[in-house]
Design a protein that fits this description.
This protein has about 80 residues and is mostly beta strands. Helix content is about 0%, strand content about 55%.
Length: about 80
Amino acid sequence: MTETGTLEGHVREKDGVAGAMVAVLGTSLVAVTNIKGFYRIVGVPAGEHDIQATDVMAKDTKSATITAGQTTLVDFKISPLGG
């Protein structure tokens, strides 16, 4: 059985971004942010992952180390492309 952890955080421009997609690249794990820009993804395999937040015209990618049985916080500050 693969050991897993939880990934959570916020996606923001100036305020929270509702409806942004957050994905663990290379997996099928995704979440959509709530009205406050908050997301949570459970069952993320332990180890190093690239995490991407995407909105209609903006995106950001960060690396995160997921530890089994723990919650890892990853917040994103995204800006519109070209802005």
